[in-house]
C-alpha cells in the first residue's frame, strides 16, 4: 500500500493538471412560454406541435466545472426536468446533484422550474438558489415557493448588484442590474468569468438605450455575450410591441454594426419568442444574421471558458 499511494497521488495530480476547462452548456433558447406556445395555431405552431424537432425549451444555460463535477444552472425554467436530463448527458454526470441555481428575475420562464425541487418531485435538499433582494423576498413570502424554503428543498443565497460570487479558484459569477419589467423582482444579467475567458448572459432586457451601460463596451470586455433576441423586428406580434420592449435582433445588429468582425462573432442571440423567424427556421433571416457576423445560440451548444 505504501508504494501505491504515491502513484495514486501522481496520477491524481496529472489528471488535475490536464482536466478540461469550465464550459457553458446551452439548455434552452426559447422565450418564457417555449416554442410552440400554448394555444398557438399559427402555421408554424401547427407544424411544431407535430414535429418535435421544431420545438424548443425555455432559455437557460449551465456552468460546468469538470475539475470538481460541479454544475450551476442559470434560470430554472418550466422545462427544468428535460433540461436537467440534458445537462446530465452533456456533463457526463448522472447524479441528481446541482451545485446551485442563479435566477435572473421573476417572470414565469426564469424561476417556476424551482417547483420540481419540491417534495412532489425531486424533494431536493438545500440546493443553493442565488437571488437578488426582491427576488429572494418574493420566494420567501409567497406560496408555493415559500414551502421550498421552509422544507429546506432550497437554500436562498443573497446576491447584490456587481458583487462577485467566487465559485472556485478563478471561477466567478457577477450579477448586474438591467432595466426590465420589474413587477415582482429586479432583473439581472450575469458575467461568468474563468481563468481564461468571460461570458455575459442577458436573456431579458428592455431597449438597450434604457441601460446605463454601452452594449459595445460590454461586447469588447467579454469573450462571449448571449443576448436577448426575443423578437427579430417590429410588427412581429399582434399587440403593441411597446408593451414588451425587448431590443429587436435587427436593432442590436444595427447598434453593433461598426464593431470589427472579431467582436461581432462574440455575440449569440438567445431567448426567442415563437414568432421569431430565427427560431422558426427562416433561412433568409438566419443567413442575414450570420452574414452580418453574429451567431444564434442553440440547445446543446457548449462554449468553453
Give structural notes:
The protein is α/β, with parallel strands linked by helices and 305 residues long. It is 26% helix and 22% strand. The protein has 10 helices and 14 strands. It is globular and about 50 Å long.
List the helices and strands and how they pair.
Elements lengths: L3 H14 L5 E6 L14 H8 L9 E6 L4 E5 L5 H12 L8 E3 L5 H4 L15 E5 L1 H9 L3 H6 L3 E5 L6 E4 L2 E7 L10 E6 L4 E5 L12 H6 L3 E5 L20 H7 L5 H4 L2 E4 L12 H9 L3 E2 L5 E3 L1
Parallel strand pairs: 3-4, 4-5, 5-6, 10-11, 11-12, 12-13
Antiparallel strand pairs: 1-2, 1-14, 2-3, 7-8, 8-9, 9-10
Proportion of residues in β-strands: 15-25%
Morphology: globular
Task: Look at the structure and give the mean pLDDT.
Answer: 93
Largest sheet: 7 strands, mixed
Number of strands: 14
Class by alpha and beta content? alpha/beta
Cα-atom Rg, whole angstroms? Answer: 20 Å
- The residue fraction in helices comes out at 25-40%
Strand order of the largest sheet: 6-5-4-3-2-1-14
First and last CA, distance: 39 Å
pLDDT under 50 segments (min length 5)?
4-18
Q: Total number of helical segments?
A: 10
**Helix-strand topology string:** HEHEEHEHEHHEEEEEHEHHEHEE
Amino acid at each position: 500500500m505504501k508504494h501505491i499511494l504515491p502513484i495514486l497521488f501522481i496520477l491524481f495530480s496529472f489528471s488535475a493538471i490536464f482536466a478540461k476547462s469550465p464550459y457553458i452548456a446551452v439548455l434552452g433558447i426559447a422565450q418564457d412560454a417555449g416554442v410552440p406556445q400554448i394555444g398557438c395555431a399559427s402555421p408554424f405552431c401547427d407544424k411544431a406541435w407535430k414535429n418535435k424537432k421544431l420545438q424548443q425549451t425555455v432559455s437557460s444555460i449551465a456552468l460546468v466545472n469538470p475539475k470538481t463535477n460541479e454544475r450551476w444552472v442559470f434560470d430554472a425554467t418550466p422545462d427544468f426536468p428535460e433540461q436537467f436530463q440534458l445537462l446530465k448527458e452533456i456533463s457526463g454526470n448522472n447524479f441528481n446533484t446541482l451545485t446551485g441555481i442563479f435566477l435572473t428575475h421573476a417572470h414565469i420562464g426564469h424561476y417556476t422550474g424551482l417547483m420540481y425541487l419540491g417534495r412532489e418531485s425531486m424533494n431536493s435538499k438545500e440546493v443553493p438558489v442565488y437571488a437578488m433582494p426582491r427576488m429572494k423576498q418574493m420566494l420567501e413570502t409567497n406560496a408555493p415557493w415559500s414551502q421550498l424554503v421552509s422544507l429546506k428543498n432550497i437554500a436562498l443565497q443573497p446576491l447584490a448588484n456587481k458583487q462577485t460570487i467566487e465559485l472556485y479558484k478563478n471561477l466567478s459569477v457577477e450579477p448586474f442590474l438591467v432595466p426590465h419589467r420589474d413587477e415582482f423582482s429586479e432583473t439581472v444579467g450575469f458575467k461568468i468569468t474563468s481563468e481564461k475567458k468571460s461570458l455575459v448572459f442577458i436573456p431579458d432586457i428592455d431597449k438597450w438605450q434604457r441601460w446605463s451601460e454601452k452594449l459595445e463596451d460590454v461586447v469588447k470586455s467579454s469573450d462571449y455575450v448571449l443576448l436577448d433576441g426575443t423578437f427579430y423586428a417590429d410588427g412581429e406580434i399582434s399587440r403593441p410591441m411597446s408593451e414588451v420592449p425587448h431590443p429587436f435582433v435587427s436593432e442590436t445588429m444595427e447598434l453593433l454594426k461598426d464593431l470589427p468582425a472579431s467582436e461581432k462573432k462574440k455575440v449569440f442571440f438567445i431567448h426567442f419568442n415563437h414568432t421569431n423567424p430565427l427560431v422558426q427556421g427562416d433561412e433568409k433571416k438566419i443567413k442575414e444574421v450570420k452574414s452580418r457576423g453574429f451567431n444564434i445560440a442553440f440547445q446543446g451548444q457548449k462554449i468553453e471558458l
